[in-house]
Amino acid sequence: MSTPIGPTDSTQVPRFAGPATYARLPRIDQVDRADIAVIGVPFDSGVSYRPGARFGPSAVREAGRLLRPYHPGLDLSPFSVAQVVDGGDIAVNPFSIGDAVETIDRETSALMEPGTRLVTVGGDHTVALPLLRSLHRRHGPIALLHFDAHLDTWDTYFGEPYTHGTPFRRAAEEGLLDTEALCHVGVRGPLYGKRDLEEDRRFGFGVVTAADVMRRGVDEIAAALRDRIGDRPVYVSVDIDVLDPAYAPGTGTPEAGGLSSRELLELLRGLTSLRLVGADVVEVAPAYDHAQITATAAAHVVYDLVGLLALQHRSSS
Amino acid sequence: MSTPIGPTDSTQVPRFAGPATYARLPRIDQVDRADIAVIGVPFDSGVSYRPGARFGPSAVREAGRLLRPYHPGLDLSPFSVAQVVDGGDIAVNPFSIGDAVETIDRETSALMEPGTRLVTVGGDHTVALPLLRSLHRRHGPIALLHFDAHLDTWDTYFGEPYTHGTPFRRAAEEGLLDTEALCHVGVRGPLYGKRDLEEDRRFGFGVVTAADVMRRGVDEIAAALRDRIGDRPVYVSVDIDVLDPAYAPGTGTPEAGGLSSRELLELLRGLTSLRLVGADVVEVAPAYDHAQITATAAAHVVYDLVGLLALQHRSSS
Amino acid sequence: MSTPIGPTDSTQVPRFAGPATYARLPRIDQVDRADIAVIGVPFDSGVSYRPGARFGPSAVREAGRLLRPYHPGLDLSPFSVAQVVDGGDIAVNPFSIGDAVETIDRETSALMEPGTRLVTVGGDHTVALPLLRSLHRRHGPIALLHFDAHLDTWDTYFGEPYTHGTPFRRAAEEGLLDTEALCHVGVRGPLYGKRDLEEDRRFGFGVVTAADVMRRGVDEIAAALRDRIGDRPVYVSVDIDVLDPAYAPGTGTPEAGGLSSRELLELLRGLTSLRLVGADVVEVAPAYDHAQITATAAAHVVYDLVGLLALQHRSSS
Amino acid sequence: MSTPIGPTDSTQVPRFAGPATYARLPRIDQVDRADIAVIGVPFDSGVSYRPGARFGPSAVREAGRLLRPYHPGLDLSPFSVAQVVDGGDIAVNPFSIGDAVETIDRETSALMEPGTRLVTVGGDHTVALPLLRSLHRRHGPIALLHFDAHLDTWDTYFGEPYTHGTPFRRAAEEGLLDTEALCHVGVRGPLYGKRDLEEDRRFGFGVVTAADVMRRGVDEIAAALRDRIGDRPVYVSVDIDVLDPAYAPGTGTPEAGGLSSRELLELLRGLTSLRLVGADVVEVAPAYDHAQITATAAAHVVYDLVGLLALQHRSSS
Amino acid sequence: MSTPIGPTDSTQVPRFAGPATYARLPRIDQVDRADIAVIGVPFDSGVSYRPGARFGPSAVREAGRLLRPYHPGLDLSPFSVAQVVDGGDIAVNPFSIGDAVETIDRETSALMEPGTRLVTVGGDHTVALPLLRSLHRRHGPIALLHFDAHLDTWDTYFGEPYTHGTPFRRAAEEGLLDTEALCHVGVRGPLYGKRDLEEDRRFGFGVVTAADVMRRGVDEIAAALRDRIGDRPVYVSVDIDVLDPAYAPGTGTPEAGGLSSRELLELLRGLTSLRLVGADVVEVAPAYDHAQITATAAAHVVYDLVGLLALQHRSSS
Amino acid sequence: MSTPIGPTDSTQVPRFAGPATYARLPRIDQVDRADIAVIGVPFDSGVSYRPGARFGPSAVREAGRLLRPYHPGLDLSPFSVAQVVDGGDIAVNPFSIGDAVETIDRETSALMEPGTRLVTVGGDHTVALPLLRSLHRRHGPIALLHFDAHLDTWDTYFGEPYTHGTPFRRAAEEGLLDTEALCHVGVRGPLYGKRDLEEDRRFGFGVVTAADVMRRGVDEIAAALRDRIGDRPVYVSVDIDVLDPAYAPGTGTPEAGGLSSRELLELLRGLTSLRLVGADVVEVAPAYDHAQITATAAAHVVYDLVGLLALQHRSSS
Predict the structure, then answer these.
(1) Contacts for B195 with CB less than 8 Å, ≥ 6 apart
(2) CB C97 to CB D93 under 8 A?
């Protein structure tokens, strides 16, 4: 296999110069194959409160300029063991959620066709549904680790089935998920009613609250997650609002009492044994960000997800 | 007729205290009639770029706390000569533009039923279409003065006919407008092509550019607008992006080279002879505002529009 | 008893629409009784550094739009077990602290008259004194849990006895407090001198520092607080600057090294056994906030305080 | 007379280094005499809406780091023809307006004692009253040029006679003003009632609105002001909210439709013939400023006022 | 000649999606020739006050997403009559001004080699010097229209000859400029001394102040500029601080009293007869920008400069 | 020894009034000796990404206005046991790193001459090198505790040996450091390669990651640091980016997953036994700060470092 083309060399081109591909990686059209692609889905028409996640991909790419190629936590140079690329944005219709969901499904399926693993940068959480559809066609029922302040298993808003609060209910209803291996992490804040929790449990979800992470510590939680998921194909979906608003002001439905970015990153680093088949980082709304606090956190989360995929790629190749 | 109930007395209740109804006016349910109502339509699903105008009504109301009851430019106490109220928000479906347009039409029609004149605070410019539909049913073809950086007579985006760039094309196609008396004011910035202007002209629109306002001065422009409109029933639609981004950063599709807030207010004050039947101020996107610059400008524009309606009400009663 | 009227239904009216009462609850004039009222006291003339808490109530109400009606941590729907309302703002004189303190005392006493419990949103910490006076008349000496970076038992500034740094000294001097059951939580940062601590201790206060919370954990601290307070009538006063500036930039006298919002909320959730008679959340200064980080934290703290009061209401009714 | 000591040399010490005295001028204690002193009065307890002007002096000094020593518009090096200094802040009681007003009167009188002319940086507009008292004792009745969006001749708020909306009514009542030579410039926005204008006129004030400045141009307005004032001793009071919120977002009671900073500066440059005895620039509220837009404008206005005083000093010495 | 490849179609790909090349134009490597290239020079080590213009190119490109392909003011589709491209960034050494100046000279010379005209986005004003060197080698002495608050003909700071305050003195000394045809426009604010003006005049510069633009109007000024320049090869250098801080907060050395963006754009539109050989827009410092006010103005200025070059290209081809 | 002159009395002069010396301490020229001086080095030309730390000293001084004179954590009034002063800024050449490094070395040596201990506020991390040179001349090889997200032992960027990423490599190469007693604390984020860690280790550095601090707790880490350092003369260098971007948005190269301000302050409080000979707090970039979050944290860190030096001073005098 050809040696992967890495990011622009920061000792020759300052990190603030040149195009803002994610981590200054090559574009997908500059390489002959892509083992892992970071793609953007600039779509936020499924948002119920503060909109703006349509600018998320571009903000995460800008923040990703600072990333360097070696991950000391994983002792890994992800861009050396796999060809990682910036796969660009999927252009979707902002005026029709249904149309958007179909486009995302179709285009991500095409991207995955040659075996490329995707880390998707949203956009709002609606985008997880078409990604799960794509993945389900390739892998069958998928385990799900869902980092979020919210359950996202609500039913409909104003009669609309596809929104950023409903992707995992739809996914469960459509049989896309492996009901033995589903877990929310970081949940907190008020709900509509006790029924929200009951229905969520009926779909098979476990819940690790943000307070649980504080009380039990990241290592114990990570171990429990590994146990629950085992070696199933798993999708990791990270709503950036799993972080406290202090760590992620730039998001649409902030809830106090969240995780720190250190906890989130260390949790992810505890998941090296998982068989990750795809991942997303969603709900970065730059209009509410300040000094790239949120976008930087998101860029690091993407980096760790890419790292997990690269680890797998290394051991499988 | 009963004496109008005015705003909260600021010498008794500080302007930063109490509910933020527009200009601290009574709610519509606190009075027995409403001659003029300021209403909000928190809807921005028709936006093509920076979203967030859904928070416009609430921002304009907050900024309106500072308004006082006497308009020296018009030598008028608008809240004394007419019962002016805050008519609250129209709750619309954020996930379906079509549904939203219908709701706005139905609810504003009901509000106008007893003869109430509306000044609508958007929300994005999509909301002008259902308002024109409502007004057309009461008044027949309507003259239109449209203050905006953009023409808003584009056709469709992604196949969607109802967006914030298309309301006046739809209105023209539906025969809602009086084609003898249509004018854009403040237009500037690049277009898709020369055809944009040609088609716009075919619908009957005149164009006063932002540069024209600088070169010819507000008094000459106002005179020309009065001439063009005459005594037809006229709707005044103000997209806050008619102002330069310096005066209105908090909006979705900013264009350099715009009007100052002083020019816009003085233009409106030159329109006292018009037979205004309704008005809107749209596209205030608070996430991009700073220190209420935009919301304050919008609150003042609403105040002048209310003033024009109150003048008419006084002379007609 | 009549079934409580709950908040506006978010599946029918988007959370960004309609008036910003706290948590979209009914106004006090819309119900026939109020078991618990959230009120605002927009007053900041007692501030010694960055002013602006006069806009706190309005910011907390805006941030409260996102709250939902079920509290999973307490397994409670607070708005179902008690009639909770938005009691509006108390209009006070911004130019006379003495006058303001009297007005707050008089008006909150009137509000409490029918047995309504109050959660007061400041405004600066000065407002706690008249609230303690009101409560003392109803309940006698009051235990106090005071979450704050500061002791607030200083004496006078520039000869002024009533300021945001002095309410609890005044309260102690006036005999309003139960000197067996007083505790500051979250204290940190430099003081004027060792005497500050000595005098504070002499008034009967215990001190749990912000570092203690980190070292001992929220559960141990909550247990100690429950022990100290027992079943005395207790007032919980939360200066939002108990949070680190990362979690609460929008405040007047920020001190590094503070609590996280998760710690604060979990501490409050450890106090379900207390006999809470009133509470406040003060010192939210929105001009220094960003993306509602502070206001969201404060809205959640209010929600938990309402939750504690609702729990009590349920068990007592 | 000794050669004036000028500002720090920016070719030796970068302008971002060293203490932020105004324009990097010497402190008053570093020179043996002061012909002109720029002083701060960090006081905002007279504010009726957005507070924070207490931080105005420090913000204007920071913005003043960029100023250079030669004024091309006046062809003058103000710091060479007169000893100009930073006179520091007057420390006033934030909790008692009456006390503050007395302190300002006393301290500014002492500063003026050796013949020093003052340019005062507020703080809120309340500070103009004690300055006029001081000046009246030295000069008798004073002409007044008042640049402001507001009249500031209101009577009382909540019974308080001394606030930022009332200094010129008090001054008129106390006989401090030369009633033949009073003018507001830049007035706009709604008032409480027609009576506001009538009473203002009765005190002797002329009114030049913000719209007048646009219609008639700065040269014609400046000529009219020179005519009105003649060679009377005159005080120039500049409320920074005379500028449009685009040019001065950092202020407490913004009104749309204001002057540009270019207009204001050119108006001042048209006043070289006046016999200026003192001046202020007030209502800079940095918490609402962005990127020093407002503070920079204010620093330039102070510079022009110092320039006018230096011109006079040169011709009189 | 092949038909130019235009920007991404905004009706198919939302303007917030896809890579942020300037105006969504093709990259230089995607076309077979480039008539006009917009390039970035992310360099700000020559800055004397607020740094950050290194992020200018990326901010202007982001703001350029909103531009459309037809310029109504010039009745021109610039991207149809010439192949316009995004030429990417020139990577320069941030730690050595001398090295950077050489790199810019070398790389821009190479870019111009095939006859490509450049519009350079800074970066700080230092970058104008190497551009003038490149152009001088191709065209001989160059006329210069310089829009700026400052003269930029200062000598050295701290002994450094190449800084953002000195490029045009260096250019004059090196004989790069046509001394018959040099003009600053928009100058204002204090200088170091009268000598600054005298020396500047000696280099041959005319000065149009910001106040002149207000007094004489853009059309008269543009005519005078056309007269002065005639048909000489001319370079137009736009320091964004020629705009008032209201219109361009995001810059390093703001001066009150500047131009509006409308004035600047209309001035440029008055220069269609000039023989433009190159242009720059510099000193956009995004860390001080808000809601893209500055970047939007800069993106429009670049668009007009591209328009002028495209006009020339059309008439010459 | 004369009694130290303390800070301005905040009960007489409000903390927002008067010059912003650090903690309102006397200037160095106002006292006859200085045991400890806080100095500023406004220099950021060694920055590789977001610049602006040149404004750090002024921001930290402004934030330091809120500090009070007694440190309860150390039970110490640092300004009473030692004469602590604000030593002003060292004016350095922004256009030559080499020149700047020499100036800092020379000027800090002069300041230390009478035995004064320095706490330096940067500026970027480049400034640590000349400080270590100064200290090495007085104390020989220095132990180093380095709080930072980064190693800062990189070699060169663009051939430049002195940058903010390289000071400790240079220091090691020059033999300034005691290779037995070097430790980074708070390290995290991606590196260029595994070699970065290997080279760093070869210089003698230990590494405590940010995750280690979370897992092991501050007390255990502090104990390990005390062990490692023993009674060697030690320099403590705090890059504010050791804090998470939530706690320190105002910095140049933010990395997610950092320390909280409480952890950092408690770590420092665990170092009372160390023989501190100097310290710095660097990389505060105010243009990216919000509401003084970062500057407040830095001001507190400086306060604790002063406290450590004062403790030593007390025991040694």
Answers:
(1) none
(2) no
Q: What is the pLDDT of residues C84-141, one digit of tens each?
A: 999 999 999 999 999 999 999 999 999 999 999 999 999 999 999 999 999 999 999 9
Supply the pLDDT for residue F1.
60
**Is the pLDDT score of F79 beyond 90?**
yes
pLDDT at F260: 98
Cβ-based burial of D282 (10 A; exposed 0-12, middle 13-18, buried ≥19): buried
Helices vs. strands in chain C: H and E counts, helices first: 10, 8
Q: What is the mean pLDDT of chain F?
A: 97
Is the confidence at residue C1, as pLDDT, over 70?
Answer: no
- Inspect the interface and report whether the beta carbons of B247 and D246 lie closer than 8 Å: yes
pLDDT in tens, E245-297: 999 999 999 999 999 999 999 999 999 999 999 999 999 999 999 999 999 99
Q: For residues F109 and B317, which has the higher predicted lDDT (pLDDT)?
A: F109
Q: How far apart are the first and last CA of chain A?
A: 10
d(CA C108, CA C100): 12
Instruction: Write down the pTM of the prediction.
Output: 0.98
The H or E element containing residue E304 is helix E293-316
> Within chain D, which residues score under 70 in pLDDT?
1
pLDDT (0 to 100) of residue B1: 61
Inter-residue contact C285 to C245 (CB < 8 Å): no
Do the Cβ atoms of F51 and E46 come within 8 Å? Answer: no
Chain F residues in contact with E44 by the CB 8 A cut-off are 51
* pLDDT for the residue numbered B118: 98
- Helix, strand, coil percent content, chain C, rounded in steps of 5: 40, 20, 40
The pLDDT of residue D1 is: 61
CA distance, residue F114 to nearest chain C CA (Å): 29
| Subunit partners of chain A (3 or more CB pairs within 8 A) | B, C, E, F
Residues C73-94 have a mean pLDDT of 97
Span E298-310, pLDDT tens digits: 999 999 999 999 9
Query: What's the length of chain B?
Result: 317
Sheet holding F275-282, edge to edge: F84-89, F36-41, F117-122, F275-282, F233-239, F142-147, F177-187, F205-209
- Considering only CB atoms, F66 lies closest to which of C197, C246, C253, namely C253
DSSP annotation string for chain A: -PPPP-PPPTTTS-TTSS---GGGPPBGGGSS--SEEEEEE---TT-SSS--GGGHHHHHHHHGGG--SBBTTTTB-HHHHS-EEEEEEPP--TT-HHHHHHHHHHHHHHHHTTT-EEEEEESSGGGHHHHHHHHHHHHSSEEEEEE-SS------BTTBS-STT-HHHHHHHTT-EEEEEEEEEEE-S-BS-HHHHHHHHHTTEEEEEHHHHHHH-HHHHHHHHHHHHTTSEEEEEEEGGGB-TTT--SSSS--SS-B-HHHHHHHHHTTTTSEEEEEEEE---GGG-STTHHHHHHHHHHHHHHHHHHHHHHHH-
- Pick from D94, D99, D160: CB nearest C95: D160
Which is it for strands E36-41 and D142-147: parallel, antiparallel or unpaired? unpaired
Which chain E residue lies closest to B217 (C-alpha atoms)?
Answer: E217
Chains E and C touch (3+ CB pairs under 8 A): no
* pLDDT at E317 > cutoff 80: no
Encode F243-263: b = buried (16+ Cβ within 10 Å), e = exposed.
bbbbbbbbbbbbbbbbbbbbb
Binding partners of E (≥3 Cβ pairs within 8 A): A, B, D, F
- What DSSP character marks residue C76? B
> Can you tell me the distance from the alpha carbon of E35 to that of D13, in angstroms, rounded to the nearest whole number?
45
Angle in degrees, CA D196, D187, D195, rounded to 5: 10
For residue range D182-191, list pLDDT tens digits in order: 999 999 999 9
